[in-house]
Amino acid sequence: ASPKYRFFREQGLNPEQQLPSALIIGVKKGGTRALLEFIRIHPDVRAAGSEVHFFDKHYAKGFQWYRQKMPPTLEGQITIEKSPSYFITKEAPRRVQHMNPSTKLLVVVRNPVTRAISDYTQAISKKPDMKPFEHLVFVNGSDNSPIDVSWGPVKLGIYARYLARWLKYFPLSQFLFVSGERLILDPALELRRVQDFFGLKRVVTEKHFYFNSTKGFPCLFKSEGHSAPHCLGKTKGRNHPYINPVVLQRLRDFYRPYNIRFYHMTGINFGWS
Ligand code: A3P
User: Fold this and answer.
1) Atom of ligand 1 at shortest distance to CA of 218?
2) Cis omega (within 30 of 0) on the bond before 204?
3) Burial class for 150, CB neighbours closer than 10 Å (0-12, 13-18, 19+)
């Protein structure tokens, strides 16, 4: 048992591991780590630190296994987990509904063009011999052919398609869509929306954040496990490669109808097009 768990016990409190009542389901490279790290500052929110991948990879292990991956909580605390692959996993909506039909679902979305580049930047950091973005984004590797919708970084940005699958199992009122752009520009504002959505007191505020100009991102003054100011790790907020503007325009045009569909579905104009 962790020191914290022992402490609870000694205080006569009864910490228990609970299945999550809220999930950050996506999207990959949207800012999901930032959202999780920021919301878990709240004393009434407890998070599984690493991605559990229960609803995609480990579902066969059962809910008991999943629950054991969760941190101990006290009554009234919200247990949350993030695995961005859930958003695009076919079986996930049905499985999550089976766990708990009132699960709250958080989706961080970001301009799909930027998201694709972010995804590519992560991929090439692991596999440096990858072809250039400008090649992989087209079916025949050149800009006189169509956008390759089967390429992961492109495909994942068609948010409307994946959301449609989730909406067969959950009402829109159970979702909160967090703007990945605003999470960078004004984290306190997005965190206020999250706390209100959870029905929590607004504890996480402007006071927790400062803009680190070296990193180019908001960072935290302090949080669980850190007494000193700190930013997210090196793999969050990478420098993106230069992409040919003609290619960027092709991608913007490609996503426009899907973005508009997504705005209609969510009732929110994210301002990407
Ligand atoms: P880049 O590294 O491409 O800039 P995820 O955690 O879902 O993988 O998302 C990673 C992205 O979160 C980063 O993509 C970055 O743009 C974004 N992000 C949002 N807030 C951040 C913060 N405070 N610090 C670092 N990255 C942040």
Assistant:
1) 23
2) no
3) exposed
Cα atoms found within 13 Å of the Cα of residue 35, Cβ hemisphere only: 35
Q: Enumerate helices (H) and strands (E) in the chain, giving the number of each.
A: 11, 9
Question: Which of the four CATH numbers 3.40.50.450, 3.40.50.300, 3.30.379.10, 2.60.120.10 does domain 3-129+152-240 have?
Answer: 3.40.50.300
pLDDT at 194: 98
Residue 241 main-chain phi, psi, to 5 deg: -70, 160
User: What is the Å distance from ligand 1's center to 231 Cα?
Assistant: 11
DSSP structure class, residue 89 = -
Task: Indicate which residue's Cα is closest to atom 18 of ligand 1.
Answer: 31
What is the rounded CA–CA span in Å between residue 112 and residue 125?
A: 20
Percent of the chain past pLDDT 70, that is, above it, reads: 96
pTM to 2 decimal places:
0.94
* 0.85 surpassed by complex ipTM: yes
Give the domain ranges of the chain: 3-129+152-240
Q: Which residues of 21-47 are buried (b: 16+ CB within 10 A; e: fewer)?
A: bbbbbbbbbbbbbbbbbbbbbbeebbb
* Ligand 1 surroundings by CB, under 6 angstroms: 28-34, 84, 118, 121, 183-184, 217-218, 232, 236-238
Q: What is the pLDDT of residues 30-71, one digit of tens each?
A: 999 999 999 999 999 999 989 999 999 999 999 999 999 999
